[in-house]
From TrEMBL:
Official protein name in the record: Uncharacterized protein
InterPro entries assigned: Bact_polysacc_biosynth/exp
Keyword terms: Coiled coil, Membrane, Transmembrane, Transmembrane helix
Transmembrane segments: 48-66, 474-496
Any coiled-coil regions, as ranges: 180-207, 374-439
Originating species: Novipirellula herctigrandis
Length: 706
């Protein structure tokens, strides 16, 4: 900067670097906001003529196509219905109406229609004229067909409905036959597996010497359970019998010592008394019987004696024989003996007397009762001992049998998993066989019905919009074809014109944001065009202090155009402030500024004051003086004048003198790289930018040539 104190210079440098760091990632070298806006505006301006011309040609093409190719199209609709059926469900998953749609316009169906109706043309066109509408879960299928002849379209559509219906039945029948064949294969495989399982089980039965391992295992379990019950019962019986025998023995010892329970004693006394009464009653009964016999014998004896007297009288008269008399005499003797029963009576009386004597004795009842009690205990003890012996024998037998059954159970336990596996496998075979039988029966029943097939529900009838004219479509197609025929090449030409050039690649190589593009026409205008406005806006966003300098360095042989400098300076001047342009006199001379101005000499340099505008220009005769002014505090009068300007735009430096350009850029607050000529991407241009980087130039961006 020209004679600006160091602290101000540092402040402006920090401001530039912060602003650049914030905007660097927001705008790339080829796609920055300003660059894209400039590219788009140029592209649109150049493309307007192509758009107008393409519109005219498109309208002409649309009129021609609509008048020569428009025609009427007739639409007919037919309806098919998928017959529902619960037969075969859920063993057969039948296709839905959506599944059948692919057979409507299949190549085989279209080929059949072409052959039957002798349709001329491509089969794909016929397929495109068919529209199928079906929804998941719906049993209706709508088929619409279009064509130029209504009679022919209706006939073809009716035939198409029949063909699709027949195809659906064939598809269903083929699917059922495949299912039945699969069922047959599965049934045969299941039978083979069952035979193999039975052979394994027979081998296992043969190994364990039985024909039914499962039945034997169950019988063993039942036998062991019953034997366990019997062993437990006999053990309890034996324990009870032993306790009973011990109690009886203890009771016998106590009874022999005269210790008989009182209630037992009373019962025994009563029994003894009843026994005595019974004996006496028997004796008395015998005595009564004997008395009755004796009385009867006496009666008979009296009769026989009378008969004997009568026979003896008759014997004396020889009317009877001696034998008859002797027989009667023997009977009389016998009856005489029977009637004389005194000895028996005496004996019975003696027995009764003895009984009475015993009853009168004091210890008869006690001794009889004790003897009777002991005899009863002895009988009971003998019975219990016999029962104990029997129970112990049975317990030994049952225990031995239980051990045998447990050993047999252990032997069968080893084969239990195999038995269970065999049973599960056989149950699985039976279940699968039952399922296969149900599936086979259900699917066979389906063959005899119309279930899951498409039937013609409605023959072809005119659609809601039965006739349509394609004139509008032809207009749109003609306009589109005609306009695009010219518009696409025009856009490609204009796009090629604004494609990134070598200048963009140079800026991208060094990471410089592209401020804008400029051509030679806009460079010659003092308005500077869009590039000048974008450049001024970019400088203003930096908020540089008063008197800040911006160097515009050209990478070509020619310096930055005066028009762009003047345009940017005009945009930067605001609210009465002025902007100074600093230029050197080159080989081509200087371009005069527009408007009126006055001239004065400041330290042998020319300063032009604009009287009609806010822009002044300082003309330096020798570029080396500009370098000295940027690096040393000289020309006090010039520095004082420059310090009053809002901005100082420095031009006139290029790659023609790289040392001056580098020193000027190093002393400026911001640097803008300008590429205008063909050799802007040459080695000299690259070296110049590298020198600027080495001198820590504060780059603001680049202006590239289009």
């Amino acid at each position: 900067m020209l004679s600006i104190p160091p602290n101000v210079n540092e402040h402006s440098s920090d401001a530039i670097q912060n602003a650049l760091s914030r905007s660097y990632h927001a705008q790339s070298s080829r796609h920055g906001g300003a660059m894209d806006s400039d590219l788009f505006s140029q592209f649109m301006r150049r493309s307007i003529k192509w758009v107008i011309l393409a519109t005219v040609i498109g309208l002409a093409m649309a009129w021609y196509v609509a008048t020569h190719f428009a025609k009427d199209t007739y639409y007919f609709t037919g309806q098919l219905r998928l017959e529902p059926s619960s037969v075969g469900f859920p063993f057969l998953v039948a296709p839905s109406t959506v599944d059948y749609t692919r057979y409507v316009d299949s190549p085989q169906t279209i080929r059949t229609l072409h052959k039957e109706f002798d349709i001329q043309g491509d089969e794909s066109a016929t397929a495109d004229s068919i529209t199928v509408e079906a929804y998941q879960g719906s049993s209706d299928m709508m088929i619409e067909m279009q064509g130029e002849s209504p009679e022919k379209v209706k006939a073809i559509l009716n035939e198409l409905l029949v063909l699709v219906s027949e195809q659906s039945r064939e598809i269903r029948d083929v699917a059922i036959e495949k299912h039945l064949a699969q069922f047959k294969l599965r049934t045969d495989a299941l039978e083979d597996q069952e035979k193999e399982a039975e052979q394994k089980y027979d081998a296992l039965c043969k190994k364990y010497n039985t024909h039914d391992l499962e039945a034997q295992f169950k019988a063993n379990e039942n036998d062991r359970a019953a034997t366990n019950g019997l062993v437990a019962h006999r053990t309890i019986v034996c324990n009870l019998l032993r306790e009973t025998i011990d109690d009886i023995k203890q009771t016998i010892v106590e009874a022999r010592g005269g210790n008989i329970p009182r209630d037992e004693q009373d019962l025994l006394d009563e029994e003894v008394k009843q026994s005595i009464d019974t004996s006496r009653h028997a004796i008395l009964q015998d005595k009564l019987v004997d008395h009755r016999q004796r009385e009867a014998a006496r009666v008979k004896l009296s009769a026989k004696q009378s008969e004997l007297q009568r026979l003896k009288t008759l014997l004396a008269r020889d009317l009877v024989t001696q034998a008859e008399v002797q027989e009667v005499e023997s009977q009389v003797e016998l009856l005489t003996l029977e009637s004389n029963g005194d000895e028996t009576i005496n004996r019975l009386e003696g027995s009764i007397s003895k009984i009475r004597d015993k009853m009168d004795s004091n210890d008869y009842l006690a001794s009889s009762a004790r003897a009777k009690y002991l005899a009863r205990l002895a009988d009971k003890l003998e019975n219990k001992q016999q029962a104990l012996a029997i129970a112990e024998n049975e317990l030994r037998d049952f225990s031995a049998h239980l051990k045998y059954m447990e050993a047999e159970y252990e032997r069968l336990v080893d084969v239990t998993p195999k038995i269970r596996d065999f049973k599960d496998e056989m149950d699985g075979f039976n279940q699968q066989r039952q399922i296969l039988r149900q599936e086979t029966d259900a699917i066979k029943q389906l063959l005899a019905t119309d279930g899951h097939t498409l039937t013609v529900n409605s023959e072809a009838y005119p659609s809601m919009h039965s006739v349509k004219n394609n004139q509008k479509k032809m207009l749109v197609a003609g306009f589109g074809a005609g306009s695009l025929l010219l518009l696409i090449p025009g856009f490609l030409i204009e796009l090629f014109r604004i494609t990134p050039s070598k200048y963009e690649r140079l800026a991208s190589k060094h990471g410089l944001p592209i401020i804008g593009r400029i051509d030679r026409k806009s460079a010659s205008r003092f308005t500077g065009g869009t590039t000048s406005r974008v450049l001024a806006s970019r400088i203003q966003r930096l908020n540089l202090p008063v008197g800040s300098s911006i160097a515009l360095v050209s990478t070509g042989r020619q310096p930055c155009p005066t028009g762009m400098l003047y345009g940017a300076a005009s945009q930067l001047a605001e609210e009465g402030s002025r902007v100074l342009i600093v230029e050197t006199i080159g080989k081509t001379g200087l371009v005069p500024l527009p408007g009126e101005h006055t001239t004065e000499q400041v330290q042998e340099q020319t300063l032009e004051h604009g009287t009609t505008g806010p822009v002044d220009r300082l003309i330096i005769n020798d570029p080396s003086l500009l370098c000295n002014a940027m690096s040393n505090q000289v020309w006090d009068e010039l520095s004082a004048s420059i310090r009053a300007y809002r901005y100082v735009l420095i031009g006139g430096v290029s790659s023609q003198d790289p040392s001056v350009a580098s020193l000027v850029s190093a002393g400026a607050d911001a640097v803008v790289v300008v590429s205008l000529e063909r050799d802007a991407a040459s080695l000299e241009s690259t070296n110049l930018i590298n020198d600027l980087i080495d001198f820590d130039a504060r780059f603001l961006g680049a202006v590239i040539s289009t």
